[in-house]
Amino acid sequence: MKFKEFMNSLDKEVKNVNLLSGEETFYIDKAREKILSKLAVDKSNLVTLDCSQKIPLSEIISTIDTAPFFNPINVVLVKNAAFFGSEGKSERLEKVLQNMQPTNYVIFTAKNLDKRRKLYKIVSKVGAVLEADLLRVWQLDEWLNEKLQSIQKKMFGDARKYFSERVGILPEISLWYLENEFDKISLAVKNSEITVADLKRLLTEPPEVSNFALPDAIDAKKVKQAVQILRTQTRDKSKIPVLMTVLVNHVRRLLRAKFFMAKGIKGQALAQPLEMNPFIAKKFSATAETYSTKLLEEIFIALADADYKLKFGLADVEILEKIVIKLSNR
């Protein structure tokens, strides 16, 4: 089940076996909190086992299958349960989960799942499974609408467009970051409407955003600004690999855009293949039009060469400056 369906199901019944899977920790944390709240369990009564600490599977099974002593129910949280995605099997664990004592509850968290495994099939049959996939930019509207409703605020045209631009440059979205930002904004904005001015004043940029200042300057053909940003960001030599990754990913995405555009897929239609918000995709399509495929292919090779030379001390930051200038002067 996806997050909303899973959370709604908890209002009807909490299953004795729950599997919270995926990479979006916001969804997993919220689901875990609601399960514990429904069961009226606090941290002092919760038994937590972390599989990353190499706890024997036999101990995990015994803990799950132990009858409660001082409490009416026994609730166990098993974190990082890699056995849902790795090979091997445990008939004893499968049997315990199939025949859970009515007083016992277990919550598994796992990043990866192998849906072909018998263990997963058992849990999906007798329990509840949350698939907490990372949220993509084009899926953000539903979350935003629900968040605005919860804080009793509204956002319209220009503010939503500005928000999409700010968040759309991120390769992945941290819902915990957005949750905290909007909680902060709701306290600072007294009016019912959140404006562009409010967002500019209060929305804190995550660390990833500053890395995109360079591609933005290059796309805008602002040569001096691009070079200045490059020099500023590379004063700390440890940041060069990060900056290199940003440039490579940007050029790769431009090449992908050119590939689809050559097939007639342009503007907002690029949203799906490039995994972008439609508004951002339209803007990115216009930007990609200003680049030639030949130039991007040459730059991609040049970046690979620069990466090798920088790693082995065969070149300095000047090699990146030449690339940035070439891109900006297209």
β-strand percent reads 5-15%
The SS-based structural class is alpha/beta
* Number of helical segments with 4 or more residues: 17
Tell me the distance between the termini. 48 Å
| Secondary structure tally: strands | 5
Can you give the helix content as a percent range? 55-70%
Largest sheet: 5 strands, parallel
Unreliable runs, pLDDT <50, ≥5 residues?
Answer: none
Oligomeric state: single chain
Q: Based on CA inertia axes, which overall geometry fits?
A: globular
Mean pLDDT: 89
| Rg, alpha carbons | 25 Å
Strands in their spatial order, largest beta sheet: 2-3-4-1-5
What is the string of SSEs from the N terminus onward? HEHEHEHEHEHHHHHHHHHHHH
Structural write-up:
This protein has a five-stranded parallel beta sheet with strand order 2-3-4-1-5, with helices on both faces. It is of the alpha/beta class. Helix 4 (91-98) runs parallel beside helix 5 and helix 12 (223-233) runs antiparallel to helix 17. The chain is globular and about 70 Å long. The mean pLDDT is 89. It has helices at 3-12, 25-38, 57-65, 91-98, 118-126, 140-150, 157-168, 175-188, 196-202, 207-210, 213-219, 223-233, 240-262, 271-274, 278-288, 293-311, 318-328; strands at 17-22, 46-50, 74-79, 104-110, 128-132. Helix content is 56%, strand content 9%. The two termini are 48 Å apart.
SSE order and pairing:
Elements (H helix, E strand, L loop, with lengths): L2 H10 L4 E6 L2 H14 L7 E5 L6 H9 L8 E6 L11 H8 L5 E7 L7 H9 L1 E5 L7 H11 L6 H12 L6 H14 L7 H7 L4 H4 L2 H7 L3 H11 L6 H23 L8 H4 L3 H11 L4 H19 L6 H11 L2
Parallel strand pairs: 1-4, 1-5, 2-3, 3-4
